[in-house]
Amino acid sequence: MESLYDVQQLLKRFGIIIYVGKRVYDIELMSQEIKNLYDSHLIEQQTYLKAWAILKREHQIELSREDL
Q: Which of 11, 27, 47, 59 could form a disulfide with 16 if both were Cys (CB 3.0 to 4.6 A apart)?
């Protein structure tokens, strides 16, 4: 797993499709869903941490774009 698309595909495997309309909000909601999957023991810790790191990176990128 290396990209936001990969995280979306992971969520899709569990029937979770997220589209709010604003990318930064999509990323925030994905973070919550990934945490819920981990807390429910549906994904392993390594998968959770990798997805969380990707989402955090993408969130920072989106915030920096908004500041311009």
A: 11
Q: Which of 55, 19, 18 is nearest to 35 (CA)?
A: 55
Cβ-Cβ contacts under 8 Å for 38 (sequence gap 6 or more): 45, 47, 48
Which residues, in sequence order, are CB contacts of 10 under 8 Å at separation 6+?
1, 34, 43, 47, 51
- Structure tokens given for 54: 């990707």
User: The pTM is what?
Assistant: 0.92
Ranges of each domain in the chain: 4-67
Question: What are the pLDDT tens digits along the chain (68 aa)?
Answer: 999 999 999 999 999 999 999 999 999 999 999 999 999 999 999 999 999 999 999 999 999 998 76
Q: Give me the residue label for tokens 């309309």.
A: 21
